[in-house]
Design goal:
InterPro entries: HGPRT, Hxn_phspho_trans, PRTase-like, PRTase_dom. The protein has 3 helices and 9 strands. The chain has about 180 residues and is of the alpha/beta class.
Length: about 180
Amino acid sequence: MDSSHMGNDLDHVLFTQDQIQERLERLGEQIWQDYEGKDLLLVGVLKGAVLVMADLMRTLPGTVPMDWMAISSYGSGTKSSGVVRILMDLREDITDKHVLIVEDIIDSGLTLNWIQGNLRSRGPASLEICTLLRKPEAAKVAIDCKYVGFDIPNEFVVGYGLDYDEKYRNLRDIGTLAPHVYS
Ligand code: 5GP
Ligand code: MG
Ligand code: MG
């Protein structure tokens, strides 16, 4: 779905699909260099990271495996609950693997903080994070994130995998919603 199909639900576009692709290309180059000769496993967090994973992994100039986990953090609102539960676990044993978590967005950091702790207890060779978006002003815990696409203001964004009440994930761009959508 293009921004032009959003009617008056969209307030403004933050990043176009071209800007997102361009940034992912750069991140992919960096990741490929950093993990040269290492047993890399990309771990995506459903559902928001689906499009980041799909586009990021295709920038890599060689084959790389992926795995997924699903957790619950948000309900249908726009605030992090801080309550994390595994809905679907990884299929792979990550012991001694170089794990790179692929995420859509770091807001409070509570979700990733929990995921990091959970995965670290399984004994990976290394554990790093790649997130497309990060909201520095919203941080409640400090997250050491090695690869960041864009730092953004503390606003609720949708598109490119990110939803509001399961809607707008298929918007190609990333943008903010008009106030009337929330009320
Ligand atoms: P955190 O625990 O860092 O506050 O948030 C984790 C999850 O909340 C993200 O992976 C994402 O699913 C959701 N989230 C946080 N901020 C936003 C936002 O601005 N827009 C959308 N659509 N989801 C968000
Ligand atoms: Mg996410
Ligand atoms: Mg969501």
